[in-house]
């Protein structure tokens, strides 16, 4: 079953087999020793290394390298659980039409084409989600009280969401800010699951906040199939996942990934 708050981040011995309806989400701390970041950098593809070097801020460079390096190792683990042996460095990664990361078509990896994944990082954490039952998207945001919430709400929130924020703002500005992030991460997660970038008008749909909430104010025929769940890394970071599947069809496991001295992911504490 899925839980709302607090999110319990445990670590099993290894990545699961991911049967139909199962989703696993890993919480990853982005602050890692320099030696480990350097080792992870060497495990990236040439294109990924070039992209990393284009970041001007060291913190952005580190976040990208750590997230991408661990993504490769987890994908390798999931492929291995499905009987497809692929080293982390050899996992073929590309991007869809609107930038969504995806496994490249490959004679080997193609045998596990049902594997879906989504990645997001912000502040001190990254979230990495994996599943086999259809599209999914994950988003994480660090709390920023200086953000122009009014501007974003005016341009990207559905009427019901905007009304809820106005009501909350009359009580507490801090509560209003936190409510904003709960909505925003769900909306972003949905766009990532669709893989369409910002080509969808965010005002054309609304998201609920209860566990397993579905789309509202949406004209999509499959609106009832999209579900939202809260996944907060800690008290200052907000996270959410959107999964495709009807009510009662999704089982979620939440885990913590740690990085060893050899820059390999440890799947246990």
UniProtKB/TrEMBL annotation:
<comment type="similarity">
    <text>Belongs to the P-Pant transferase superfamily. Gsp/Sfp/HetI/AcpT family.</text>
</comment>
<protein>
    <submittedName>
        <fullName>4-phosphopantetheinyl transferase</fullName>
    </submittedName>
</protein>
<keyword id="KW-0808">Transferase</keyword>
<dbReference type="InterPro" id="IPR037143">
    <property type="entry name" value="4-PPantetheinyl_Trfase_dom_sf"/>
</dbReference>
<dbReference type="Pfam" id="PF01648">
    <property type="entry name" value="ACPS"/>
</dbReference>
<dbReference type="InterPro" id="IPR008278">
    <property type="entry name" value="4-PPantetheinyl_Trfase_dom"/>
</dbReference>
<dbReference type="GO" id="GO:0000287">
    <property type="term" value="F:magnesium ion binding"/>
</dbReference>
<dbReference type="GO" id="GO:0005829">
    <property type="term" value="C:cytosol"/>
</dbReference>
<feature type="domain" description="4'-phosphopantetheinyl transferase">
    <location>
        <begin position="136"/>
        <end position="235"/>
    </location>
</feature>
<dbReference type="Pfam" id="PF22624">
    <property type="entry name" value="AASDHPPT_N"/>
</dbReference>
<dbReference type="InterPro" id="IPR050559">
    <property type="entry name" value="P-Pant_transferase_sf"/>
</dbReference>
<feature type="domain" description="4'-phosphopantetheinyl transferase N-terminal">
    <location>
        <begin position="39"/>
        <end position="129"/>
    </location>
</feature>
<dbReference type="GO" id="GO:0008897">
    <property type="term" value="F:holo-[acyl-carrier-protein] synthase activity"/>
</dbReference>
<dbReference type="GO" id="GO:0019878">
    <property type="term" value="P:lysine biosynthetic process via aminoadipic acid"/>
</dbReference>
<dbReference type="InterPro" id="IPR055066">
    <property type="entry name" value="AASDHPPT_N"/>
</dbReference>
